[in-house]
Design goal:
Oligomer: single chain
Order of helices and strands: HHHHHHHHHHHHHHHHHHHHEEHHHH
Number of helices: 24
Strand order of the largest sheet: 1-2
CATH topology of the largest domain: Serine Threonine Protein Phosphatase 5, Tetratricopeptide repeat
Low-confidence stretches: 172-176, 193-199, 210-234, 237-268, 403-410, 476-482, 484-493
Length: 493
């Protein structure tokens, strides 16, 4: 077996810490998973090498001598990273900061990952899961997003078949029957009347959104909010429920959770008529520090909110209807006790294992972190408008090169526009290095030649004193090769 490519080795190095602690990686380090996915998208031209590294990581996760649960956790972490690489910058997801050009350029990478990694990963993950595992709904949700958003052109039924076959092998007759029933019900839905199907889906979405909305309103009542804020949050939820678009209803629970954490006092800062003024740097630093310190808390709270939303989303409709009926009735009839007990027994384990007190505290902490970050961002925007994004660097550079001459050189210096163009290229090179989490020292030969050619054009400025040159001058290094005068030698010695 040949050694892995440099890009595959780098990917394995990045994945190693996450595989060492799979339980924490699956629930907490979502930011690290997104960083690795962004790195893969940045190196999208090396899709074959990235697929090779991911395949090796899957085999390593399987071969680790550990319990089956940790093995499934490791494989789920790898699947989440691949999922983020498949859906990042997707224009139809409705996320902010989407770059459509990068999404289009990443199509070969998505096709390579789907063709070489995803099927193998789904089969191995299904082989490690038990009946009723909490990982199964997460995998089903990711597969549904791939198919709905059409991340690449492929036969999705083949991937789903590999996943279902793996579940049948490990789950026995019970899981096999459940998978067959799910396939049969799906086929029946496809052959049903289109109008009836759309009406049923809308009713299900409205029913589930009502449950999520009632839980969100209950959380809101615990906070000291004004009636205006509660009315604003309620109106936002009603607008979300009124939407009948299938793609929006897929993410309705996530939008409902975010609406309960929104800040109603956005108008505290008046962005209109902000007068220009000098802004001290420490004011920007204070606001940025608040945003950075609360980011980890917000990430953890976001995972908790998504898990809670997923738990409520898997409640059967008949259980929701029964709970709503029991809430309206004041007295219970003895004849219905057995029927109610049978219906309530269908609640999923994920919902029964919830600690409502802890979930309530986590949502409140998540809400407060978002509120404080929002205020800090508004403050940054206010300071940017006040300073007009002018920090004096460009004016200082024009003063230095304004006369066309420099104190260190008798000749005319380059035009300020040419210098700014070079600085722009340097900034692009630095941005690439930061995106790679450091300088990439193992590049291909062609890329190294290209970089060397660009570095020749970007020579240091004449006013920049290199530390190595000063050391050579102080040590009396003879660059030209001519013998130095004896008087100079005496001074040096």
């Amino acid at each position: 077996m040949s050694a892995p490519s440099p890009t595959a080795r780098k990917l394995l190095q990045k994945l190693q810490p996450l595989l060492a602690t799979p339980a924490q990686s699956s629930s907490t380090f979502s930011e690290t998973q997104q960083t690795i996915a962004s790195w893969m998208i940045f190196n999208r031209k090396k899709g074959e090498a990235l697929a090779e590294g991911m395949e090796i990581a899957v085999k390593d996760a399987i071969s680790m001598d550990d319990i089956a649960k940790n093995k499934s956790d490791r494989l789920l972490v790898l699947l989440k990273i691949v999922h983020r690489a498949l859906v990042t910058n997707c224009p139809t997801l409705g996320e902010s900061g989407v770059d459509v050009s990068i999404w289009e350029k990443s199509l070969p990478l998505r096709q390579t990952l789907i063709g070489k990694v995803v099927g193998f990963l789904l089969s191995e993950l299904a082989g490690c899961l038990d009946e009723g595992s909490m990982h199964i709904p997460q995998v089903e949700e990711m597969m549904k997003v791939w198919e709905d958003q059409n991340v690449c052109d492929c036969i999705w039924e083949d991937l789903r078949q590999k996943w279902e076959d793996g579940l049948k092998k490990t789950g026995g007759e019970t899981v096999a029957a459940a998978v067959d029933n799910a396939s049969a019900s799906k086929q029946a839905e496809l052959t049903a009347d289109t109008k009836k199907q759309s009406n049923d889906s809308d009713q299900d979405a409205l029913m589930k959104d009502d449950v999520v909305k009632s839980v969100s309103v209950a959380f809101e009542k615990t906070d000291d909010e004004t009636p205006r804020e509660a009315a604003a949050a309620k109106s936002e939820q009603e607008e979300e429920v009124s939407s009948t678009d299938d793609r929006r209803s897929q993410f309705a629970r996530r939008d409902s959770t975010m609406s309960t954490t929104s800040v109603a006092s956005v108008g505290d800062i008046d962005f209109e008529g902000v007068e220009e003024a000098h802004v001290e740097p420490h004011k920007f630093l204070e606001a940025a520090k608040v945003i950075a310190q609360l980011q980890i808390t917000r990430d953890i709270g976001g995972d908790t909110a998504m898990n809670l939303s997923s738990a409520f989303g898997h409640i059967p409709p008949e259980v929701e209807e029964l709970c709503r009926t029991m809430n309206q009735q004041s007295e219970d009839e003895e004849g219905e006790q057995e029927e109610r007990a049978e219906i309530l027994s269908r609640l999923p384990d994920e919902f029964l294992d919830l600690d409502l007190k802890y979930a309530k505290q986590s949502l409140q902490t998540y809400k407060e972190a978002i509120r404080q970050q929002k205020r800090a961002r508004l403050q940054c925007l206010h300071l940017l408008l006040q300073s007009r994004c002018s920090f004096g660097s460009l004016e200082a550079a024009r003063i230095l090169f304004g006369n066309g001459k420099s104190d260190h050189d008798a000749e005319e210096t380059p035009n300020i526009d040419a210098i700014l163009d070079k600085l722009k290229k340097r900034k692009e090179a630095l941005s690439d290095a930061l995106a790679l989490e450091g300088l990439d020292v193992e590049e291909d030969a062609e890329e190294e030649k290209k970089l060397e050619k660009e570095e020749k054009d970007l020579v240091p400025f004449n006013w920049f004193a290199d530390g190595d040159d000063e050391a050579k001058d102080s040590a009396g290094a003879n660059v030209s090769g001519e013998e130095e005068p004896s008087a100079k030698k005496l001074k040096i010695t």
